Amino acid sequence: xxxxxxxxxxxxxxxxxxxxxxxxxxxxxxxxxxxxxxxxxxxxxxxxxxxxxxxxxxxxxxxxxxxxxxxxxxxxxxxxxxxxxxxxxxxxxxxxxxxxxxxxxxxxxxxxxxxxxxxxxxxxxxxxxxxxxxxxxxxxxxxxxxxxxxxxxxxxxxxxxxxxxxxxxxxxxxxxxxxxxxxxxxxxxxxxxxxxxxxxxxxxxxxxxxxxxxxxxxxxxxxxxxxxxxxxxxxxxxxxxxxxxxxxxxxxxxxxxxxxxxxxxxxxxxxxxxxxxxxxxx
Length: 282
Ligand SMILES: Cc1cc2nc3c(=O)[nH]c(=O)nc-3n(C[C@H](O)[C@H](O)[C@H](O)COP(=O)(O)OP(=O)(O)OC[C@H]3O[C@@H](n4cnc5c(N)ncnc54)[C@H](O)[C@@H]3O)c2cc1C
Hints:
Blueprint (H helix, E strand, L loop, with lengths): L7 E4 L13 E4 L15 E4 L8 E4 L2 E5 L4 H5 L22 H6 L5 H6 L2 H7 L5 H8 L3 E5 L5 E5 L4 E3 L2 E2 L6 E8 H4 L2 E8 L6 E9 L5 E6 L6 E5 L5 H9 L14 H21 L3
Parallel strand pairs: 1-3, 2-3
Antiparallel strand pairs: 4-5, 5-10, 6-7, 6-10, 8-9, 11-12, 12-13, 13-14
Helix pairs in contact: 4-5, 7-8
This protein binds flavin-adenine dinucleotide.
Flavin-adenine dinucleotide (FAD) binds next to strand 2, helix 3, helix 4 and strand 10.
């Protein structure tokens, strides 16, 4: 839709172009959310897709994923699925979570080609499955502050609630680093929705690191991604206990599922994920 309060769209080429971000000036990435509803508080957008950030950079201790990496690029990064994207090492089974997390979004291929990883993370919707996948993989966000300084925040600490993050006015998510241990991890993914093509009601993602440590991450069912850590793959009693012990106010309530239903199905999916992590233990 047209945003008739917007007076200027700035094409960002360098970090200095981001200094004008603030209360009435927002980051424009893929625009799939920004142009989907009125943004009456905004007068200016700063387009960051022109910054020229490569979608993926292999670094010494993992993989740096640019905020401007599109969902299509992100999904194509899974082993054996090149789709014209940089071929990531087939020895990184952790990247197997990338594609299903994109498919968990209720979105067309047109959206996939525009929507970005950073937009999904910063929007902080419970149904943000790309945010969920990168949280499950222990991703760490690199934040560019308006004063030119940088800070890194584990994704598990970035989201406070639906649509709310710890980002301060003027801050930009530059990239997310997935550590090497998560790239080498075995993973598991489960999703349920009230309708076959409906918005996710619950998404559960499992990760088993090479050293045996495991994490089970709940999203869509909860108001923010919740990570449950275990020293080894949890058995049925342990996973049921951990899910059952969650603060009742964490279960999300919207037309895509009641908190009671979400708690129930998330518990079932978490058991299935834990069982898959156990099988791979042998
Ligand atoms: C049909 C449809 C279905 C959708 N389904 C889902 C769904 O199931 N789950 C879901 O989570 N979302 C969904 N969305 C919402 C949205 O499309 C996605 O979350 C998408 O990933 C947002 O990315 P974007 O690049 O288009 O963000 P934009 O629309 O460009 O930006 C989104 C918000 O994040 C801010 N932002 C973007 N990038 C940065 C950055 N690097 N640093 C700081 N702030 C930033 C923007 O200022 C804006 O407030 C859907 C949208 C549509 C139109």
